[in-house]
Amino acid sequence: MTGNQPKPGLIPWPPVIYVAAIAISVALGLLYPLPWIGDLLGDILFAAGWVALFGVVALWFTAIRTMVRAKTTLNPNAVPDHLVTTGPFGITRNPMYLANTLLLIGVAFVSGIAWFLLFAFIAAFATQKVAIEGEEKVLTAKFGKKYRDYAKRVRRWI
Length: 158
What we know:
By secondary structure, the chain is mostly helical. Helices cover 66% and strands 0% of the residues. The chain has five helices and no strands. It has helices spanning 13-31, 39-69, 95-111, 115-143, 145-153.
C-alpha cells in the first residue's frame, strides 16, 4: 500500500464497542430494568438464546481457525496478508463482528435483560461505521477486483 491509500485505524474499535455495550447493558439492567416476556415465549427465547450463544462459539472458532490457516492477521487494525473467502467468510464478510452481535442478542434472551437487544444493534451499527467501512477501503486498496468480486458475492453481515 502506498502513502495515499487508506490505512487501518490505531484503536481496535470492535472489542471496545462490544465491551462497552455489555457494560452499559448490565448497568442499565441493574438501574433501570425493562419488562421482559414471560411464560412460554420467554422459555422459547431462553432456549433460542442458548442456541445463539453456541452459534457465537462456532462462528468465533471457525473464523479464527480459517484465518490462522490462511496465515493472515487476526488484528482488526493490521493490513491482512491474504483475502480470506472460505469457511464462515463464504457466508458473511464479518463473522467475528456478527458473532459479537449475536453474543449480545443471546445474552439478552438468556438473561432477560432487554438492554442487550438495543445495544446489540447500536454496537453493530457503530462497528460498521468506525471499523468495517474503513476495513473495506483497506481491503479494496490491497486486493482490488478480487475483493470487489468477493463483496458482491458475500454480504457484509448476513
